[in-house]
Amino acid sequence: MNEARGINTGGDFETYGDLNNIKRRTNSFIQIKVEMEVSLRIIYILCLIGSVLSQDMSHEEVMVQLQACPKECRCPQDFPRAVYCDGKGITTIPNIPPHTWYLYLQNNDIEALSADAFRNATQLRWLNLNRNKITSKGIEQDVLSAMSQLAHLYMDDNLLSSVPSPLPRSLEHLRLSRNRISKIPAGIFSGMNNLNLLDLQSNKLMDDAVTEVSLKGLNNLVQINLAKNQLTSMPIGLPPTTTQLFLDGNNIDKIPADYFKGLPKVTFIRLNYNKLASSGVPKDVFNVSSILDLQLSHNQLTEVPLIPSGLEHLYLDHNKISTVSGSGMCPDSVDILDGTNESGPRLRYLRLDGNEIKPPIPSDIVSCFRLLTSIII
């Protein structure tokens, strides 16, 4: 009789009788595995059903939603709140089913937003209209403001000449990049306390369009993107809640001395590709404790501005800086000879390439910024 001895089960060694016994146990194991796979599939199906139920839809509502799905669009049975009409080459918006939360209309040839198309879509949370041909005149009055629950509105890459108005006060994210916007209507953001992201990059905004009047009402804004516009000065009227400020690719040549004192929470500042010279940048203008990432690449700086102790990333590449030193860069409150200073500068990344600086880096810079892990020169 064949025997199999010493089979390790993870604990003590056991002795099993003949090979037939082993086969029976193997078959039992396979059966258990199959049953587990079936159970996992059932759990997966239950999760899908749960996702539908979690959207507060009855079976009747799901059926109504799917039956009302426009022929040009796709309405997934396992995600009935979403309607996909993207990339269909449509020129007008079809009638939207009544229980839609997520509507995808990007990559089409839509020229106008009509109230009729959205008449039943009163529950919209997310509307993507990127890469169409929508003009400001093509947006019917109140068609957007009627969407009282809309949180995300994306209209990048269209033909807008002005920020659409009026907007729903429920908005959290508004993306309008790569249009032809030159105007922000006064008071358009009044009462929009939920808006925390505003993207207006790659438009035609000038200084007189970005003012305290046009930005009034943005009481909880976190990120504003005004890159690649036609600004010649720092925008005024930004809310004190601003954390991320993107101004790359403008024509800004100076920064007021106390500018960032009005932005006590600003953490990320991008001013790459502007016309900043050291004469237009007060030495301590960036000496704000909240700043962690400062980007000043591709400007006309000849000196390094004062670095706040909390700064972690500094981009100064492609300027006209010829010399750097620890005494000139190190925060005033830091003794560069004190190697035990635990509250010293937090700078970890420094980029200086594209200037007129010749290596090596002065040793007092290394002595000051002891957390530096990368220096590009």
Automatic annotation (TrEMBL):
Say if the entry is tagged with keyword Ribonucleoprotein. no
**Does this entry carry the keyword Cell wall biogenesis/degradation?**
no
All residue ranges annotated as the LRRNT domain in the record: 68-102
Q: Where in the cell is it found?
A: Secreted, Extracellular space, Extracellular matrix
User: Which UniProt keywords are present, listed alphabetically?
Assistant: Disulfide bond, Extracellular matrix, Glycoprotein, Leucine-rich repeat, Repeat, Secreted, Signal
Chief location bin: secreted
Cellular component terms per the entry's GO annotation:
extracellular space
The name this protein carries in UniProt is Keratocan
